[in-house]
Amino acid sequence: MIKKLCGVLLLISLILCGCWKKEEVINDTLTSIRQKDILKVGVKTDTPPFGYLDKNGKNIGFDIDLAKLIAKRILGDENKIVFVPVNTTNRIMKLSSGEVDMIAATMSITPQRQIILDFSIPYHTAGQAIMVKSNSKIVSLSDLENKKAIIVFGSTVEQGLRSNIPNIQIIGYKTYPEAYQALKAGKAEAMIADDTILLGFAMKDKSVKILPKRYSKEPYALVFRKEIESDRFLETVNMELEEALNRGEIRQMKAKWGIN
Ligand code: GLU
Question: Does domain 128-216 have CATH number 3.40.190.10?
Fold first, then answer.
């Protein structure tokens, strides 16, 4: 009797499992993107050269071109894309809530983030660096002991810095332009961020300099919701990304935006 009951329960669970799987395939993210014929991507609007706006308010930058490449591959047209502005602080929320299908916004793969998010293969490696005023005497991270440093909230720098230099006074901002303006206004001795982001500011400004040392490796990747429905989307993006890397397309895009 007990054996029979177990058998029936097993059968019911297998049927339920089968139905659930069927629905999962129908509702997956890639299918829904293809049905809507539009890809929604979270991008930065103030982080040159990765994601920013031209003088007509058009989204431009390396991450924008990368998102267009993905749209072209999965929808056949690089313009079938909606760019949703995100910043370091709100990008995970915009992805989790479904406002965007994917993030392309200078986001590093980290073990903590991998607990709640899925990442594509990396497409660029940045490194944390220190930017100071040109006449500054600061030459390394240890010089910032008991001094003030500017960071952007939610970035990988925030966590690393607190554990490396416990006595540092951190001043946080929501966006990189705000952080940069604060450094220029003398609110702190240094600004710490990814070298590629700092370069976007320092390239046009002789009053600041980037110190030579790098304090981390920041592998940038496209970011996805960690859910079974987004698995096929992630696999497809990874395939396209791998091909673009092998064909040298990513290298050409980096050269276009002055990224090393
Ligand atoms: N790559 C770093 C991060 O993912 C900093 C860049 C950013 O704030 O977007 O936190």
Answer: yes
